[in-house]
Specification:
The complex is a heterotrimer of chains A (349), B (263) and C (494). Chain A is an alpha/beta fold and 349 residues long. Chain A has 11 helices and 9 strands. Chain A folds into 2 domains: 158 residues, Periplasmic binding protein-like II (D-Maltodextrin-Binding Protein, domain 2, 3-Layer(aba) Sandwich), CATH 3.40.190.10; 128 residues, D-Maltodextrin-Binding Protein, domain 2 (3-Layer(aba) Sandwich). In chain A, strands 1, 2, 3, 4, 5, 6, 7, 8 and 9 form a 9-stranded mixed beta sheet that branches. Chain A is globular and about 60 Å long. With 263 residues, chain B is α/β, with parallel strands linked by helices. A 6-stranded mixed beta sheet of chain B has the order 7-8-9-4-10-11, with helices on both faces. Chain B is globular. The relative contact order of chain B is 0.19. Chain C has 2 domains: 229 residues, MetI-like (MetI-like fold), CATH 1.10.3720; 245 residues, MetI-like fold. Chain C starts with a helix and ends in a 7-residue tail after the last helix. Classes of the chains: A alpha/beta (349), B alpha/beta (263), C mainly alpha (494). At the A-C interface, α1, α2, β2, α3 and α7 of A face α9, α10, α14, α16 and α17 of C.
């Protein structure tokens, strides 16, 4: 046998090329279509969170769910872009969004279809979390809470209001996600509706002046508070729960109980206009809005807050009534969000 | 017939264009604005060895490369017997790979990934020699050029002389009709150069190939060939046997060459 | 024909997406004159220039030491030097800065320097290998060792610049590193953030317009450097003998230490830190088992894409050689790489979401197309470089010996550039495995390992994420290790 590396290189290359080509063919032919009943779900949730609910739906109905999810790194922008670009030839049936703003935006762009009549399971959802025109329905919410590191903050000093972020006492110690994405963007936009233009601007200026940290996401913020790099900050209950479960010394405080209340942001589900499987889309939406789905999501480690009454849930999952909820018109907030996004993008350099 | 007299204009036709071997008629080669070869005509018969000498930049290599087909001439006509390789109207062009010629340049340009034997076997394959005949021809030629004992070695393992011998074998294998030598021995020491030069000449003659040999070495030029072509400024300055050149050198360059070989 | 394929893969999607520039001209114009944009480009450029200011000297020096001196174990060093490149910057961030808290622009620059310096080393090393003995000796006779060093650097600078520009492409397109590293402390908002905000606000015209300065910033120096390097490349002596390595005195052990430290920081520590965070073999095995389908899918996809890239780059570069490597071909090949991934994704949807094309659009086909279109440059660059450097006389000899174009290519060119082709395959494979942002917009992209990893970052247990990152790093580096084991020599880039 010849031991020349060049020669061996050639042989290796041709073999590798051959194997590669065969593999590519296998890969391409491996995706033949089957005729099973299916429904295509686009979701801004990551798959591990959505999976238990989807599994249950598949089990009950025999309809296969094709799941297209998102990652926190991409901040939902990829998925929404896909939906917009596919508008003329939709490939999705259902959009399950972890918040409301992008849903309202997609509705305004004509991507969503109206569900008329609304699904049966939507009956018990409080009106505030349902689009009156029937384009979207809320379920399984998250609350916007202050996550506090109990090693760093004394019992007596615990913050209990969003205004604590602007308190001189916490200069350089508090955090807010840079509000150009996700629930923080919705939250800050809602403030304009609730406390007015002037007060909100004052709050935002306060956050900037008080040298608040601006992590890229709520999960990262919660982690940083858990690790003790930041004393406290606004995050979602779902992200708080994950950090808490990891054993970090943190508690969640539901802020502004005596004034505007704590913001609650629901997951939303909507039907895509012109999607390939309209019948199954309706079935999936109906299931996502059911008591069963809310129960599964409440028992998930992220602990989603059920919006319907009397859903079985772990003790730590507080529901409206256990705390004061901010009254938000999600439709109006959604309509303003692009304008506010640009403002925030300029304010938070 | 043999115009050995000194003629400054380009009316010299080297050789007798009788159709048996290579005929070059009024060949011109141009690179942009530079005219490297100007209306050169020459003929080489099978078995004949012609040397081309001339100062640097006289167009020797350009002439050789255009005969090989590696560059496309601007005008003229190149034929081998009744085959037209190139004609000035541009309609006639035969690719170098179909001309059945061999060429050796100063660098042997061997293929680093092939053994000596594989070099020849491969060329025989390309030249359409039947599979069963290839091994025999290869061994014979390796024997002829004297590197049969190095048949399984790659170029990197061969000495400079051996590399040139392999290049010679590769140039001649598979029935090359014409051998183009572009200063092939420049890299070797004096002793080996003389020896190998004579051998190349002998082997080529044995195989019946015509040889067109560009050289810088005055001794080579005066001892090896049947005839000498002197190029200067892209034109043929003089043509004749070594003896004729020696007795009637045309121009300063040839005079210097002759002086050096007489010294 | 071939050009058509390239155009279809890379340029049609880019064109379809960038068309919004003209469809919404007012929006595009106002994005360009937006006072927010230019300071952010400034910030990104500052980061990039600071990175280059460290990366170029460091990379050049390491390349010089590894190629032109008698540094101990330099062959091994050259083999190991590409590794940090194949760990995505975010893996460097996650692994390193999970251990040591660092933040702000210095941290961003540090991560980029660690992650991208191999670009400079690999490319300049290749240039330095081309310095001939005669040339080096002449320089040394006339000016001593100092002159040799200066002349070597001058020789390697264009190649180093190409390396720098490749790094620039990745730096300008990235906001994740800056985001992550300024979670605490003053926020650094970069150029890529602006493009992202335009996408978020559904201003596709503005997003396309905002991308233009970045594309130009990448392409212009790249084209310059490629041309410049080619001019130098043309001076390579055909009777080439490599220059003798210079002898370093006692300092060589100190200098070796520098390279060892770099390799430790860039490769060993991230891997060890990930392994440490993962905790135990069982975690890694568990994650590997859980993600085995995705690992398989990703490896197959990467292998198929790399094969496609090489198969496409080979004839393309042979053709380019005949065109004397026209500059527009460089643009053609590099444009899809310089375009922000989201824009490419938008373009891909516009091109492929059509009746009858479902098998491609909904399956892995469109991923292959996306990867080949985007990363073709990584196969084309080394293959093109080695074809350019191939001695013409060897091909002429084959031609006179009766070999036609095809036979010459298969029998002479291919065997001679085989090792570069394999290296190109490895590099292409590694980069396809890092890709996330374009694939995320396509359904089959969900089945890839990077998607799985990033959808678990923040959501899953830290150990699991570390284990997944370790698996991804292992899968990425595998072919390179295989190549090194078989060929026993460093990869050649360009």
């Amino acid at each position: 046998m010849n031991a020349d590396p060049l020669r061996r290189g050639c042989r290796f290359a041709s073999n590798a090329g051959l194997v590669g080509t065969i593999l590519a063919l296998m890969l391409l032919t491996g995706c033949g279509g089957d005729e099973q009943e299916q429904v295509v779900l686009y979701s801004s949730l990551n798959e591990p969170t959505a999976r238990p609910v989807i599994d249950r739906f598949e089990e009950k109905t025999g309809i296969r769910v094709i799941f297209q999810g998102d990652t926190e790194r991409d901040k939902t922008v990829g998925l929404v872009q896909s939906l917009l670009e596919e508008r003329h030839r939709p490939r999705a049936d259902v959009f399950w969004n972890s918040e409301t703003a992008n849903t309202v935006r997609l509705q305004r762009e004509g991507v969503l279809a109206r569900l008329d009549p609304p699904p049966d399971s939507a009956a018990l959802i409080p009106d505030a979390y349902v689009d009156p025109e029937g384009y979207w329905f809320g379920f399984a919410a998250r609350a916007r809470v202050l996550i506090v590191n109990t090693d760093l903050v004394e019992e007596a000093e615990m913050p209990n209001s969003m205004w604590d972020l602007t308190d001189e006492k916490w200069r350089g110690k508090a955090a807010l996600v840079r509000p150009v994405t996700g629930t923080t963007l919705t939250h800050m936009t809602a403030l304009y509706e609730i406390i007015g233009e002037e007060e909100t601007n004052r709050f935002i200026q306060g956050v900037i002046d008080n040298e608040c940290h601006l992590p890229p996401g709520n999960g990262r913020l919660a982690q940083l508070v858990g690790q003790g790099q930041i004393h406290f900050g606004f995050t979602d209950t779902s992200d708080f729960r994950l950090v808490k479960n990891e054993g970090y010394p943190v508690i969640a405080i539901y802020p502004d109980q005596d004034s505007i209340g704590t913001m609650l942001i629901p997951n939303t589900v909507s039907k895509i206009r012109g999607g390939p499987n309209p019948e199954n889309a309706r079935k999936l939406i109906n299931f996502l809005l059911s008591e069963e789905a809310e129960e599964i999501l409440a028992h998930h480690p992220r602990g989603h807050i059920p919006l319907k009454p009397d859903i079985d849930r772990p003790e730590e999952v507080l529901v409206p009534g256990d705390f004061e909820v901010m009254e938000v018109d999600f439709q109006r907030v959604g309509e303003q969000i692009t304008t506010r996004l640009d403002q925030f993008d300029r304010r938070f350099r | 017939m043999n115009q050995s007299n000194h003629q400054p204009k380009n009316e010299v036709t080297a050789g007798r264009p009788d159709g048996a071997g290579l005929n070059v008629e009024a060949l011109s080669v141009q690179y942009g604005h530079i005219q490297a070869v100007r209306e050169v005509s020459l003929s080489v018969q099978p078995g004949e060895h012609i040397a081309i000498i001339g100062p640097s930049g006289s167009g020797k290599s350009s002439l050789l490369r255009s005969v090989a087909g590696l560059i496309r001439p601007a005008a003229g006509r190149i034929t081998w017997a009744d085959e037209t390789w190139f004609d000035t109207d541009g309609t006639q062009w035969i690719e170098p790979e179909h001309r059945r010629i061999g060429m050796i340049a100063q660098q042997p340009a061997l293929w680093p990934h092939l053994t000596a034997r594989a070099h020849l076997m491969r060329v025989l394959g390309w030249r359409g020699v039947k599979r069963r005949d290839r091994a025999g021809q290869t061994e014979r030629l390796l024997e002829l050029v004297g590197i049969a004992h190095r048949a399984t070695h790659r170029p990197a393992e061969l000495s400079g002389g051996e590399q040139q011998r392999l290049a010679l074998a590769r140039a001649l294998v598979g029935g090359s009709r014409l051998l183009l030598l572009d200063e092939p021995l420049g890299q070797l020491d004096l002793v080996r150069r003389r020896e190998l030069g004579r051998e190349m000449s002998r082997i080529a003659q044995e195989m019946g190939a015509a040889v067109l040999h560009v050289t810088h070495d005055p001794t080579d030029a005066m001892s090896l060939p049947d005839r000498i072509v002197v190029l200067e400024g892209g034109r043929i300055l003089q043509y004749g046997t070594p003896d004729e050149i020696r007795s009637q050198p045309a121009g300063a360059f040839v005079e210097a060459v002759v002086r050096m070989t007489n010294a | 024909m071939l050009i058509v394929v390239v155009v279809l893969l890379g340029l049609v999607p880019v064109g379809m997406a960038m068309a919004d520039l003209f469809r919404r001209p007012a929006e595009a114009w106002s994005a360009l004159v937006d006072p927010v944009l230019w300071p952010r480009i400034g910030t990104s450029l500052l980061i990039a220039l600071l990175t280059l200011a460290f990366m170029l000297p460091l990379g050049l020096m390491m390349a010089w030491l590894l190629v032109r001196t008698n540094l101990p174990a330099r062959r091994l060093g050259m083999m190991l030097i590409p590794f940090p490149l194949f760990l995505p910057p975010l893996v460097h961030v996650l692994s390193w800065f999970g251990v040591i808290p660092l933040s702000g622009i210095p941290a961003i620059v540090l991560v980029y320097v660690i992650a991208f310096t191999p670009f400079v080393v690999l490319l300049s090393a290749r240039s330095l290998e081309q310095i001939s003995r005669a040339h080096a000796e002449t320089v040394q006779l006339m000016g001593g060792k100092r002159a040799v060093l200066l002349d070597d650097l001058r020789h390697a600078l264009p190649a180093a610049t190409i390396g720098g520009v490749l790094a620039l492409v990745f730096m300008l397109g990235d906001f994740a590193v800056a985001d992550f590293l300024t979670s605490v402390g003053p926020k650094v908002t970069v150029y890529a953030d602006t493009i992202y905000v335009h996408h978020l606000a559904q201003r596709s015209g503005a997003a396309a317009a905002t991308a233009v300065p970045g594309i130009l910033l990448c392409l212009v120096p790249l084209i310059w450097a490629l041309r410049r390097r080619r001019q130098l490349g043309a001076t390579v002596d055909p009777r080439f003998e490599r220059a003798e390595p210079l002898t370093l005195g006692g300092t060589r052990w100190g200098l070796l230490l520098l390279i060892v430290i770099y390799l430790l920081i860039g490769t060993a520590l991230p891997l060890i830190s990930l392994a440490w965070q993962a905790g135990s073999w069982t975690t890694i095995l568990e994650q590997a088992r859980g993600a085995s389908d995705r690992i398989m899918f990703t490896v197959l996809l990467g292998a198929a894409a790399a094969t496609g890239m090489v198969l496409l780059a080979l004839p393309l570069m042979l053709f380019a050689q005949r065109l004397r490597r026209a500059w527009w071909l460089d643009v053609l090949i590099f444009l899809p790489l310089a375009v922000p991934p989201l824009i490419l994704g938008v373009g891909l949807i516009r091109v492929w979401n059509r009746p009858l094309l479902d098998a491609i659009y909904l399956g892995p086909g469109v991923l292959l197309i996306a990867l080949i279109g985007r990363y073709l440059a990584f196969a084309a660059l080394p293959i093109g470089g080695s074809i350019e450097r191939l001695d013409r006389s060897m091909l002429d000899a084959a031609r006179l010996a009766g070999a036609g174009r095809f036979v010459r290519t298969v029998r002479i060119t291919l065997p001679l550039i085989a090792s570069t082709v394999i290296a190109a395959w490895c590099i292409s494979f590694c980069f396809t495995l890092r890709e996330l942002d374009t694939l995320i917009m396509l359904r089959a992209g969900q089945r890839t390992l990077p998607f799985h990893l990033y959808s678990n970052v923040v959501f899953a247990r830290q150990e699991d994420v570390a284990a997944l990152a370790l698996i991804l790093a292992g899968v990425t580096i595998m072919p390179l290790l295989l190549y090194l084991a078989i060929a026993r020599r460093a990869i050649r880039f360009l």
